[in-house]
Hints:
The structure is a single chain. By secondary structure, the chain is α+β, with helices and mostly antiparallel strands. It has helices spanning 31-38, 40-43, 67-82, 116-130, 157-167, and strands at residues 5-6, 17-25, 47-49, 56-66, 87-97, 105-111, 143-149, 175-178, 180-189, 192-202. It has a single domain (5-202), classed as Cyclic Phosphodiesterase, Chain: A (Alpha-Beta Complex), CATH 3.90.1140.10. Helix 3 (67-82) packs antiparallel against helix 4.
Amino acid sequence: xxxxxxxxxxxxxxxxxxxxxxxxxxxxxxxxxxxxxxxxxxxxxxxxxxxxxxxxxxxxxxxxxxxxxxxxxxxxxxxxxxxxxxxxxxxxxxxxxxxxxxxxxxxxxxxxxxxxxxxxxxxxxxxxxxxxxxxxxxxxxxxxxxxxxxxxxxxxxxxxxxxxxxxxxxxxxxxxxxxxxxxxxxxxxxxxxxxxxxxxxxxxxxx
Length: 207
């Protein structure tokens, strides 16, 4: 497995440049994830599964960013977090993504029944653009990446993985609350990414 999250002490006082993004951390006890980990057939597929503690829902990818720019932009992000209550979200059935002949990951779309996550995403990206970030302007489709396919896939293997995912009866209790916005550093290693929480802002926290 790959992509663990470390919390060595929340801080934004570093120097240099880091690969960073904003995200909501997903609790590993979500029923959909427990069902996935307990299925031996799925775990045997040619997939590099994410470590449970590394699962997250990206709000905005910031890319290579100087520490001082992160520190300057973070108060605006924290201000957005204070305007919203914790958001009830639901993980949907895992699927191959992107769809088609050359998928890369297994991901679960996220249902945002109140539209609150979309509102947070909109406000956060507006605040970041005002802080000088050039962000992706494509439509936001919230999802959680669960695992990356191990290349090269043999002929028909992607179709077999898709069939295995669709053959499972996924539990309906895939709900979880989004309690906070986290600023994470991403460090890339041969066995996958490792994430470190640099700062965290609780949704609805008092001013």
